[in-house]
Amino acid sequence: MDLDHPYRDPRDGGTARTAETAGAPPAPEEFAPVHGTVDLTTCDSEPIHVPGAVQPHGVLLAVERAGHRVVVASANTAQFLGRPLEQVLGRTLADLLGPELAEQVRAADALEDLAEPLVATVPTPAGPVPVDAVLHVSGERLVVELEPVGHAAGAATVSYRSTRAAVTRLAGSTGIDGLCARLAREVRQLTGFDRVMVYRFDAQWNGEVVAEDRREDLNAFLGLHYPASDIPAQARRLYTVNWTRLIADVHYAPSRLHPLLDPGSGAPLDLSHSVLRSVSPIHLEYLRNMGVTASMSVSLLVEGRLWGLIACHHYSGAHRPSHDARSAAEFLGQTASQLVGERVRSAERDQALAAQELLGDIVATVSASGREPLVTLVEDGRLLRLLDAGGVALWTGHRLLTHGSVPPRAALQRIATLLARADGAPVFTDHLASLSPALADVADRAAGALRVGVDGQGWLLWVRPEQPEVVDWGGDPHNAKIAEGEGPDVRISPRTSFEKWREVVRGRSAPWRPWHGSVADRLRSQVTGVMLGRSRDQIAIAESLQRAVVLDEAPVVPGVDVLARYQPAEGGQLGGDWWDVMALEEGRVALVVGDVAGHGVHAAAAMAQLRTALRAYLLEGHSPASALDRLDALVGTLLGNHMATALVAVVHPAAGGAGAVVELASAGHPPPLLVDATGARALEVPPRPVLGLGFGPGFGPVTGLEAETVRVPLPADAFLLLYSDGLVERRGSGLDETTATLARTAASAAVDLLPAGDMSGVADRLLTAVPGGAGDDTTLVLLRLR
């Protein structure tokens, strides 16, 4: 159903070129659409806003803003005013139209009050003629369009009271369908056209006749659809800047503008806001093919976007409603636009509020559940109802959770990638096959999708199946594509057949609405909040557990001085480091440093169990090696996939204070350092594999890997340093290098600080000995004989 221009080149992705965007102004012939051949290219690129002509039921004068001298005039001005064009160009409005109208134009221009038409009488060869004078600004020119006052047959008399009553009836209608039906009836009564339709656009700019008021003998167009190619982009743009467009007689001969190019700008006059603008000859042919003899359209704009049109057709000759009737129809269109916007927003607001209430219930369920929040969320069937979807999928970054009807994993990943945004904001489409043709194969489960990012690399994806739609087209919607297949040189004419064409449109889902994206975004925020709250609770539990298990300071043990330090990883992450010191029988003292792999609650809980079990083994009298082997069995059988390292030292003080002997055993842990005034050296402790691999006696598949206890002397003037790998492991540096740095620092600190008994100063130096730390939690323990 063409309303300005029938075809758009299907080879041109929907982008229409205009004179402004195409570069320099073309040759004058290109602005003479009444002559020459028309092919696919010229149809799409025809600059319909600068046709170089007007319809002949009125005249146009473009004047200088300063003195109101005529610069451009339509050719029919000569006949209307009885003067040759040469005597019109360069003359003032006062000379041509008389002082009364010229003064009204001057006052309106000075006040920039150009909205209302002026009513005056102008001198003509046939005597004074009452005219409606419509003003607008085009570039540097003031455009004055004169149209003799007239009244079309069948049109109602326009008054303030009748217009107000029509607005009241529009406001009292029910729903958008009821509003459109009332609007068609009111506009037809006001303008006297044989048929008045309300035409609504969809997201792809296809149109549907959603309301109609017509002569009883005419066939109904109600419910028919028309392809987007019927109204190309440049025509839709004009409908957003000029609300009303009248063609009083489709058989008119255009009245050309003289000169064609404005002498001041060198460009044709832009008639986007003109009420007399001549229209495309292809559009006129299109209307004639439909049997239409006159037409009018009024735009319906919702929030600045073209929502639809009031389309008026006449079939019994020329038809020119008065300017008052057209203005009243435009006012009804503007009122209806506001009412449509309010009703659309109201309906969506009600739907969004219901969704928000459901969202609150879902989030409350997730919060109250003791399970993992994302798992609880996906398994809640109400998540589908929240956005009226057929299936939902959630990618956590390492696993995929689904509910309802969803396509295979590869298709889900592909869809999520196509809809991804860096900020994770909601993105949706009702036609996935337009993004990737291969996705047409899964349209029965996912023709449309909405994606929102979740927790970093994760995403939540709702999918909708295709919704096949039976569409009754007003003629074959594919004829533009047929013409394209015939080659670039074929002349494309407006379609002549408007017989009903029925088609089943497939591959699209029900459309998403903006509020769907808002609800999805709010769900993301609230679930993220639940997850953060859950993480904080877990961290608090782990910190409490760690404080209960890992000592703040060493207890007093007879015969030795012990000092320990613990530093958490960057960001306060809980690690698996622990240390312990306890008195054993016969004056012995046990010292332990360990490290459970990982961070967080699970690592802290495993660490607590290992510390407790190792204490029990040592108190039972097991040697360091035997205690570690038993601990390995515990890790392998009770703690699942956890792994840990540990170093155990049992100090046997010698009689008379002449030093001590230290028994050492290690399970994958860094070796201890023995430090005295002569230097520092790493003690060679044969390490058994880390705990958790199951190599303890009677448990492992390989023998000979059990822990081994070694005995080394501890002089009275030396100290023993046990530490976790956080003290020496650095990215980009080898362990040999960092351990050597630690040893040099320890030896220097022993010379400088130990004579004064400053073990705290020694510990401070050791914690900063190797630069670049805090990537992991760090523990060190110093022991010397008292």
Entry keywords:
7-stranded antiparallel sheet, alpha+beta, 3 domains, 19 helices, 786 residues, Beta-Lactamase, Phosphatase 2c, domain 1, 32% helix, 6-stranded antiparallel sheet, 31 strands
The global form is: elongated
Gyration radius, rounded: 43 Å
| Top CATH class of the largest domain | Alpha Beta
Q: What is the beta-strand fraction?
A: 15-25%
List the total number of helices. Answer: 19
Question: What class would the helix/strand composition place it in?
Answer: alpha+beta
How many E strands?
31
The CATH architecture assignment of the largest domain turns out to be 2-Layer Sandwich
Distance between the termini: 102 Å
Structural summary, described in words:
- This protein is an alpha+beta fold.
- The protein has three domains: 317 residues, Beta-Lactamase, CATH 3.30.450; 129 residues, PHY domain (Beta-Lactamase), CATH 3.30.450; 235 residues, Phosphatase 2c, domain 1, CATH 3.60.40.10.
- Helix content is 32%, strand content 25%.
- It contains 19 helices and 31 strands.
- The strands form six sheets. Strands 1-11-3-2-6-5-4 form a seven-stranded antiparallel beta sheet.
- It is elongated.
